[in-house]
Amino acid sequence: MPRGSRAAPGSRSAAIPRVEEASRIGAGDPPRPWAVAAWTAAAAIPLAFLCLFFLWPVASLVATGFTADGRFDASGIAEVFGQARSWRVIGQTLAQAALATAVSLALGLPAAYALYRLDFPGRTLLRGLLTVPFVLPTVVVGVAFTALLGPGGPLAWLGLERSLAVIVAALAFFNVTVVARTVGAFWARLDRSAEQAARVLGAGRVRAWLTVVLPALAPAIASAASLVFLFASTSFGIVLILGGREFANVETEIYRLTVQFLDLRGAAVLSLAQFAIVGASLLVSARLRSAGERAVELREEADRAQRPGLADLPVLLVFAVSTLLLQVAPILALLARSLRDREGAWTLANYLALLDPPAELPLDEPVIAAVGRSLRIALLAAAIAMVLGLLLALVLSRRPAAPVLRRGLAVFDGLVMLPLGVSAVTLGFGLLLTMHRPLGIGLDLRTSAALIPIAQALVALPLVVRTLLPVLRGIEQQQRLAAASLGAGPLTVLRTIELPMLGRSAGLALGFAFAVSLGEFGATSFLVRPGEQTLPVAIAQLIGHQAPGSYGAGLAAAVVLAALAATSMLLAERLRTDGRGEF
Asked: Three-state SS for 436?
């Protein structure tokens, strides 16, 4: 621009001084007292909820196992860890999680490439369908793999029922989605210029990927792997249904010790081992996620996805075959067997039993009543998780200048993720121990259904935060500062910049919360009252009962639950934004 000339009011050159001025104003102005109070309340409300309904119950259950006659007694540690079975269970937990992580990475990377780097008709629909397995209830998935590989199943000849292989396959069923979305969202925003330069210099397609693309993807791959390991190591329903006592992990062993033997001391000691596994996984995930976010911020938005070519055929073939065998086949087997009777004839009797159950079924009411109850509870749980998750995401997206505040937010972020890794069994039993007149209130919450949506909201809360937080962190700080320089207060900035940016990601978070709450089984199985089952609890009762027709009715109920969860997730996926807010 020639010297002495003036930039147009709307030009980029004119906007730069305003942003710089806003930066100086924002850095020098002390925070207003009411703003400090508002942000304090935004952090205090979710923190109080977590402390009352999560930390206190879990800590109380653990403390119960380390007290005897009102005194601290740590002798249970040596006793439990001196048993060969305890180490066997811990070893099986780590082995199952490690194998599931490896399989999920091997199958998730081709899926990430196909769905995020290639452009073809139906790609958006496939992304939505790939999300469905992650939110399917564990009861449904366990029953689906049993229908596929168990007695009478189309693949029963493989002899994989009650084996390590089927447990790993079922865990990968869930977690391929985690890898595909986490790595794919990162991959979609990578600049392809370095890869193209390597190709120009003579590197082949595979060599360019190994030497250029793979190192760039390393933070996202490692972050996805740590999340998959966390989810797999804390799996309850899958291992309980498909593994039984022989392939028990720490989660199911805590359940067995608590429910069958009332051995709170043994359960508490094993909870310590689980906390160690979860803590390590969360620490690694948080560090690698931060590295991934920083890497993405240094790059421009991704180039447009390319049309598939012949060179992409092997990757597409791996993606198609793995999806059909691992995720489509179990669901189709579940659907087909729900439409057959014990003799193998096609029938709708299993579905009619949901409306008018025979007297021999272990149900106090029609299953359709459990469907309505589950929907109401899931809606309430999703609303709680969304309100708390939005407050948490807003607080955690702040970038304070003080190192103490930054470290405090990092600790707070880890606390928010804990419900995702702590045993749902531990949470449910802890709520039963502590919610008799909590805080001196003359109300026994254990006799009401109020604890069920609370427990489900706790399970869904980390997913809501992880969906919203990347979107808020992606907002440029200059936008907030420029708005402040023009006289906008914090509430105005929130209303005009931050909330509109959340936009459709809030709908995706709501879908996650609803689907996860709808299928929650571990904590709900402790808190549900007789005669008022939720749908997952009713399915477990039907599947495990020996009455004629009970198994078929359980299969039909599992199909209904799968359809509800899938529909809610597909509707939410239509609200997905540009790839931020994946997990």
From this structure: strand
Q: Tell me the CATH number at 242.
A: 1.10.3720.10
Q: What is the per-residue pLDDT for 290?
A: 61
Question: Is the distance from CB of 248 to CB of 87 less than 8 angstroms?
Answer: no
d(CA 498, CA 505): 12
Residue 221 lies in a domain: yes
Cβ atoms of 396 and 413 closer than 8 Å: yes
Residue numbers of the chain with a pLDDT score lower than 50:
1-28, 295-302, 577-581
CB-based burial label for 413 (10 Å; 0-12, 13-18, 19+): buried
Question: pLDDT (tens digit, 9 = 90+) per residue, 200-212?
Answer: 778 777 888 888 8
In a domain, 532, yes or no: no
Write the DSSP string, 235-259.
--HHHHHHTTTTT--HHHHHHIIII
DSSP state of 170: H
Provide the domain limits for residue 180: 83-301
Query: How many distinct structural domains can be found in the chain?
Result: 1
d(CA 553, CA 562): 14
Q: Where are the alpha helices (DSSP H) in 339-423?
A: 349-355, 367-396, 403-421
User: Comparing C-alpha atoms, which of 465, 558, 522 is closest to residue 258?
Assistant: 522
Among positive and negative, which fits the CA dihedral 568, 571, 575, 579? positive
Q: What is the pLDDT of residues 277-328, one digit of tens each?
A: 877 877 776 676 665 555 444 344 445 667 887 888 989 999 999 999 999 9
User: Does residue 33 sit in helix, strand or coil?
Assistant: helix
d(CA 373, CA 367): 10
Task: DSSP letter for 304, please.
Answer: P
> Quick check: is 513 in a domain?
no
Cβ-based neighbours of 138, under 8 Å, separated by 6 or more? 235, 236, 237, 238, 241, 519, 521
Classify residue 146: in a domain, yes or no: yes
